[in-house]
């Protein structure tokens, strides 16, 4: 019999009344203190976002091809909503090899095929709880933020092949990636594959390759993986991110659409694909995906404000005043709740400018757009802020409204945010075929990379001091994270051959603290405010799922 379940909390997810009540009765008979039951995966997501459960029992079949317990589990794990200490039980009628293999791949805690007996349910649940108890020191370290210690415990268990070593290895490899120890993560994933081939380990190798800067190796590994397992949604998901980081927006969209086809109810993937569809000009697709995301997940913390602003742009383009006004009302509510959030203020300003512009209130629209432009000079203004300004600017121009010095503002933001091909292509996309604006952004991109090449040439000519000074000077003038981070890299690599390294190091660090680190700190916020990851600096991008923050609570 299970121990200490009187304090446990369980969530049951099943659309069938009889099956749902049967599971509830099983859990109560086992002594579980608190049992909550819901009928929809959407309600389950909201419940799990609101509180932690010790046990989750979900049916896999909800009578809808676009919804399943497996998709729910994948999303919960990807968004780090499901604590690693929670036991997840999947119940299904599917006895096929593909279903059983998929369950093994997903590393489910318990997989039960209907009909099952109470004894089988109790035994499997007990076994899963014992495994969680074995790994409790790892989970405790993670909960305390001691990720180094948690990784050490996982590695020790894997190396000794102690009880639950494969589970420990998976957690340890993910922790190593989070700790930016890419080479160690790759070695561990490779060792796991040698010991027991599993798809998630192959995916981990690709993520580690990419985090270490070996993009082509990562892409080849991912293409092989999705070729071998075309129904492995996470493989398509990460491949889409690689395409995006390379600035291949259309390829990234096509890849995300593959993942969406496999997981049509995944809120975050819908937003990513919808955002990319907006960028590449597929507005009907963007409206479909972002509209579904807003309708299905507006109260979820996985829903990103930026998706609603893109919908506002689409409403403006279609001349739809009423839905645009509804978006503004929503933002005014969020603004009241989160008055200290600079991001919410920027998004609110953008929507308010659109409403005023469509209503013919030119002075009000220009005033809000001007405030957006002023926000671009702040340290925490990110790529999203630049996208907002460009998109609002383009739409106000269509209704005959021009901001004073808007070309100069556009030039400044392009110099700051053209840090790589991906960010440049996103800015170009937001300019929407406005040739003068597109040309200005591309010239800024060329200027930034010309400075980087000049610095590289100086470094190769054994003039690292001049290289660092050039990068620091131009980084300060443009506030471009690529140039500032490059100054730090050259300084670190050639410190022994640099004149006055202490003074230069202090200058570069001050620039990083002012113009780079405030943006990096916001990357967890759905990738600097976007449902789609766009790197802000020259550091290796994280392929781990973005954590939602600064989001509506419902």
UniProtKB/TrEMBL annotation:
Annotated ranges, domain Response regulatory: 9-129
Repeat positions for TPR: 233-266
SMART domains in the cross-refs: REC (SM00448), TPR (SM00028)
Identification of the protein by name: Response regulator
InterPro entries: CheY-like_superfamily, Sig_transdc_resp-reg_receiver, TPR-like_helical_dom_sf, TPR_rpt
GO annotation terms (biological process): phosphorelay signal transduction system
Record keywords: Phosphoprotein, TPR repeat
Positions bearing 4-aspartylphosphate: 59
Origin species: Inhella crocodyli
